[in-house]
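Field reference: sequence -> structure
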Amino acid sequence: MLVSKACNIGFEPVVQSGIAALEYDRLTWVEQNYFRKETLDLARANLVEFHSKLPLTQKWGNGDVSSADGMRVVVPVKSSNSGYNSKYFGTKKGVTYYDYISDQFSEINATLISGTIRDSLYLICQKRLKKDSLDL
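Structure field:
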């Protein structure tokens, strides 16, 4: 399942009849029940915590400093997240992959932003929306 997601190859190359964990029905069930933002965020937090305790990681930094940057990419297929932005994508549609990384070289968070929205405005609005939802 993780291989098919990480490599963006779909289930077919991973499916193996006779192995219960790799049957097509099982893989689709796992995707539907476990691949959500909440579960992926929890998995990322566990990986970052483990990574931060490694001796080599501690030599790089203490995890108190982070960096954020966006990478703009053209999306060659139809997607509801992509948008036109002639400055970055010409006549094509694209998205911005905005990544937060610590000084220990572990990913803290990542966000996909439509190609038409200014990064800074999107990030400010998202932060405000999260704060408002916590105040409820």
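Note: Helices lie at 2-6, 24-34, 37-52, 55-60, 86-89, 119-135.
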